[in-house]
Amino acid sequence: MPTNRPKLKLPSFAFLLCLAIATAGWLIVTFSKDYRVTMDYKIKCYNLPEGKKSVTVSDSVISLTFNQKGLRYLMKPFSDKEKVVYISVADLVKPKNKVTVYSFSNRDMRDYLMHHTFGSELVAVESPEVITFYVH
Q1: Is the distance from CB of 100 to CB of 85 less than 8 angstroms?
Q2: Per-residue 3-state assignment (H helix, E strand, C coil) for 95-106
Q3: Which residue did the predictor score with more confidence, 33 or 61?
């Protein structure tokens, strides 16, 4: 009794096998590369200096550039996790004089943020060029 089961032809199987091997190779190469990615983070302030009640920031968003490896680079922009940088105002303004307006260049902010854990190597603060904190 003959069965009417379709048989997989050898050339089709060979093509699918080669396609699977090529795809696996492409994924390995893609996930092992280093990428540089810039992402926007909201700024949230805490730990105000003694005797101060509020703080206003000139920019509510800061753009940070990171070095990342493949899978981390591909997944980060699609994560639902809110991207927030928490800045301790008291620690940030400690070396400055006791005034109510503090301005920091993007290099100063990068040096301060190097102590934060982002899961990737922080390379630069892209924008704003200068960020100002108004402490009331």
Answers
A1: no
A2: CCCCCCEEEEEH
A3: 61
123 within a domain of the structure (yes/no): yes
- Show the domain range for 71: 37-135
Q: Is residue 4 part of a domain?
A: no
CA-nearest of 43, 36, 35 to 113 is 43
Which spans in the chain are helix H? 10-32, 70-75, 89-93, 106-113
Q: pTM of this prediction? A: 0.71
**Which residue type sits at 109?**
M
Q: Which domain CATH number covers 42?
A: 2.170.120
CB within 8 Å of 11: residues ≥ 6 apart: none
pLDDT tens per residue, range 4-28: 666 656 678 888 999 999 999 998 8
Determine the pLDDT at residue 92: 82
Judge whether 116 lies within some domain.
Answer: yes
